[in-house]
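Hi there, hope your week has been kind to you so far. Do you reckon you could talk me through the fold, stretch by stretch? I've dropped the whole record in just underneath, so have a look:
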Amino acid sequence: MQNNHIQNLTGLLLATFFISTSGVLGKYIAMPSEVIVWFRSAFAMVFLYVFCRYKKITVTIKSRKHLIPFIISGIFMAIHWITYFYALKKSSVAIGMLSLYTFPVMIAFLEPLFLKVKFNPIYIVLGIMVLLGIYILAPDFNLESSNVQGVLFGLLSALCYSIRILILKQYVTQYDGVLLMFFQTLIITVCLVPVLFFMDVSGFESQFPFLLLLALLTTAIGHSLMVHSLQFFSVSTASIISSVQPIFGIILAFLFLNEIPTWNTYLGGSLILATVIIESIRSKK
């Protein structure tokens, strides 16, 4: 039993680590963000389709009513990825990832609008903590500043990610997680086809290995492992453990991109991650 727990915990930590590689890869790949997201989705879609066939998961939508919510959530996922890569390129991996990690508190504020849940006043306190963390990340609020732009893109990315989660949350009991991820990548691939004609894709050959890593390691394996781990852990526990994602990202950015975070990043980041941990522990049933 203990061995099984260690195995499951290792799986969840591996998923968190694989997903955290998006920071370094997103910053490193020298192509426009929209083009990176198209290749990421297209490659991941193929990997996920092969996996669904291998696991004999039926690749069909169960009701026509599900089509519109799936398309809308796919569009929000596309905007989430694009704005996240903008955040990484405008500022640093640390600021991009920490700004994105405001999404658990955003979900808490938005949940009563999407699902039949009551708003808890504790979220106002957590919201203030997050705002303070963001303020410390970018104290000189000047729109010319690349760090401020990075934080704003990170927050927009977090908002889109929150809406996408709240839309899909209503279908997780009806569909396999890998299948939902396949539908998402399919929708993003179709929606972003025009970027191949209007944006610079000339660096494709040299960037191909990194795009493949982003699609296979970060997206297909990382997200599928994360969904798989939810069989053994509550969403709260998974959230607490996955809040080490920005820490993994900062370490990888230091090793591969020589990015050294400032004290403001450490302090603001600690406040943001503290809210994630508090909310995860508080919401644990």
Residues 31-284 form one domain.
